[in-house]
């Protein structure tokens, strides 16, 4: 591994004056940073592809490899060599495409080899498009940024860059994946006959547009990018060594494996998407325990402990349903705690249902709400988060009414789920099971939870109400350095929060 810093590459720099490698090296030197071998390989491949006449390139590189930065430099270099070019940058969303425009604009404004591109008046120097100084008149700007769903009728481009068009938002369902394919096929009407089309990204689904083999279940006889010149650069080489060891050390890679789980790591870092149906939630990977939670006061402040460890975060998540004794969707509430080391503890789980014999004096919803409040009490949870999809939209008001009647020190949080259930379950359980970081109380394992795990398959018809509630609770807690997709309840004192508010847990229902 070598880094190109203040020392130029070991070849004639005069011959590289207009090459992409030279262009990248000058930019990195100006930024006071080196150029890793990984970027040299990408730069060389992109330059050969631009002049090779094939016109179809697919660059697959692991996450956080700096590929979008290199593609921004590539767009600026193409314009530097031919200011008449028209480049269309497509991303999954308009805002992401605009980031590429800002990157290219900054390069053009500061790179020593692009000063001739600066127009006298920057009339078209906007967030989503720019026009450089050029000797021809085109209706289209020099660079246009759009989301994949934008209306591009009437546009023409010499170069189309599809930068991360495949993301969770465009691959979450079969309908979204088909829409993505249809939109990408339409680009053939925009690209000029001898134009260049470049795909840059990482696979996000088994039915990926980047797949090397056709997906027969989609009716494909050829891969979507059949005929494209491909460069695939996974994080690990054939010997299992990091291709960028200065940035991705063995320790960093081990942490990523643990935090993301094997399913996401294989797809995003090793470029090997797996069918979701191959994923199994093995209950044998759970660590069972039988200790109760204890609430003690030290220095006037409550501290919650479990199994000798202090708990610092927790979530009580209720996914309401009708709760009929005759069956149907289960109304499940779960309590998940997190200790100081980041371990997860599924301490309690309940399937709430109403009693028909008590309906004259206590309606169904009131019965369910009172059971939920009793559940929160025994698990020392001051906040109940309610998923408001479906019948859940009626629950928060009824729950607050019962809290008010009982003068209980409890709060209600509302959450509307917008992510696919299978995705949520997989993202919550896969990394924790792989790392052995999920402990489950033996009382939970005596119920149907383990059976739900064992029988679960994405898209299957087996019961998954408990898995859904538990996964939501897990994802609502601090997420191993990742962005939290659900609102996190304010921490009471036993969770380490500052302030003088204290939860009084000595109340009756």
Features:
single chain, 509 residues, alpha/beta, Rossmann fold, Nucleotidyltransferase, domain 5, nine-stranded mixed sheet, seven-stranded mixed sheet, 13 helices, 31% helix, elongated, disordered N terminus, disordered C terminus
Could you write a compact summary of the structure shown?
The chain has 509 residues and is of the alpha/beta class. The chain is built from 13 helices and 16 strands.
Rg from Cα? 28 Å
Give me the strand/helix succession: HHEHEHEEEHHEEHEEEEEEHEHEHEHHH
Q: Output the CATH class name of the largest domain.
A: Alpha Beta
Residues in β-strands, percent: 15-25%
Terminal CA distance reads 66 Å
Shape: elongated
**Main sheet specs:** 9 strands, mixed
Unreliable stretches: 1-17, 480-493, 497-509
CATH architecture of the largest domain: 3-Layer(aba) Sandwich
Number of domains: 2
Average pLDDT confidence is 85
Which structural class is indicated by helix and strand composition?
alpha/beta
Helix count? 13
Helix content: 25-40%
The name of the CATH superfamily of the largest domain reads: P-loop containing nucleotide triphosphate hydrolases
